[in-house]
Write a structure and sequence with these properties.
six-stranded mixed β-sheet, four-stranded antiparallel β-sheet, 1 helix, 11% helix
Length: 128
């Protein structure tokens, strides 16, 4: 019973030092994931080592990645609406490009694929 006043003082000090409810003033910026594959007109031929960018249409915030050996890419992004860009080399053009996409928290937007072709002698040819 002689410890009751000491415990009461400690509890009062602990309550006075507590800053209040814990509020996350910097929420996690990552809203979801965008993924896809960069390939050629011959779907068996992947395009590794290409820079893929997604740009948030309202803010212009850019997120970049590079395709893997299978041509695949993934990018984690905050919530928002994004347009797609890809690095092309001389003579290349896009046969297929993903449309804009809106990402919400925890979304996985897969199959945002690109198809690249090359122009040779006035006609398009698959990359080899």
């Amino acid at each position: 019973m002689k410890w009751a006043p000491v415990l009461l003082v400690c509890a009062g000090l602990a309550a006075a030092c507590h800053p209040g409810p814990i509020v996350n003033s910097h929420p996690n910026k990552v809203g979801g994931t965008i993924a896809g594959i960069v390939k050629t007109a011959d779907s068996a031929v992947a395009v590794p080592g290409r820079k893929v960018s997604v740009v948030e249409v309202k803010t212009g915030e850019r997120h970049d990645t590079t395709t893997g050996t299978n041509g695949g890419y993934t990018i984690q992004v905050p919530e928002g609406t994004y347009r797609f860009e890809i690095e092309l080399r001389e003579g290349e053009t896009l046969a297929k490009q993903p449309d804009e996409t809106h990402i919400n928290n925890s979304d996985l937007d897969a199959s945002r694929d690109f198809v690249i072709t090359t122009r040779a002698a006035g006609r398009f040819q698959p990359l080899s």
